[in-house]
Design brief:
Elements: H1 7-20, E1 28-30, H2 36-48, E2 53-57, E3 74-78, E4 84-97, H3 103-109, H4 116-134, E5 143-153
Parallel strand pairs: 1-3
Antiparallel strand pairs: 2-5, 3-4, 4-5
Length: 155
């Protein structure tokens, strides 16, 4: 689930607004992955333009007062230390059971060899770790939020 803005995040957002003329506030602060190393690796893929999508279990948004992400949402993305690194804009959101995600989405997510087999294997591992930590049972029947985005600013 996205984190609230800290002082360094607010300062970064102000720089983004000054540089772009954007007036909207961020939907939230987030990072990709569950370890500092993975967060840095996935951030590098975003910055290179390779990673243009992300997948989150829908249950992670059930207590979010803003609900699910939607096209137009702006996100402040951090590195593995939590330092602000870039801003993305959600362009498309689809919700479906994990088992229905297709090869095109896996390619758009840009990880590993970009194949569906890589995507499902690594996401099952990731969601399995999260399920163990959060106390729920992972299943390919759970709904996943497939969010496509574009990089809009990286200083």
């Amino acid at each position: 689930m996205p984190q609230p803005l800290s002082d360094p995040h607010r300062a970064f957002w102000a720089r983004f607004q000054d540089a772009t003329g954007e007036t909207a506030q961020p939907r939230g602060v987030d990072a990709f992955g569950d370890s500092p190393e993975m967060m840095d690796e996935l951030l590098a893929l975003v910055l290179s333009g390779t990673k243009q999508a992300t997948a989150s279990l829908a249950l992670w948004f059930q207590d979010d007062p803003l609900g699910l992400p939607k096209p137009g949402d702006l996100w402040l993305i951090t590195d593995g230390r939590g330092a602000p690194a870039c801003v993305t804009r959600t362009t498309r959101v689809d919700v479906m059971p994990v088992r229905e995600v297709d090869a095109q989405f896996a390619w758009d997510e840009g990880e590993g060899d970009r194949s569906y087999d890589y995507w499902i294997t690594e996401h099952r591992k990731f969601w399995g770790r999260e399920a163990a930590r959060e106390g729920f049972d992972y299943s390919d029947h759970l709904d996943v939020v497939c969010e496509r985005f574009k990089l809009v600013w990286a200083p």
